[in-house]
Specification:
Structural class: mainly alpha
Radius of gyration: 27 Å
Number of helices: 1
Shape: elongated
Length: 71
């Protein structure tokens, strides 16, 4: 009796692996595109002079954040 005999993988294993790889690749591409779109939107807002609410000083003597540009 030989014990080094291995069982072949199930018939649908290769197909499942390919589908899983495609899904993971699609998720990576979707995250990459989404982050680039968000970055482009933020960059446009910053170039237009808009300040994010979390970056605005709370009051005029707030030293933790830089004051907005007054042009």
């Amino acid at each position: 009796m030989s014990t080094d005999q291995s069982n072949p993988p199930p018939k649908g294993a290769a197909r499942f692996a390919a589908i899983a790889a495609v899904i993971v690749a699609f998720m990576i591409v979707a995250i990459f595109v989404g982050m680039n779109v968000q970055h482009a939107k933020t960059l446009r807002e910053e170039q237009a002079g808009q300040i994010k609410p979390q970056d605005k000083p709370m009051h005029e003597k707030d030293l933790s954040k830089s004051p907005p540009d007054r042009r």
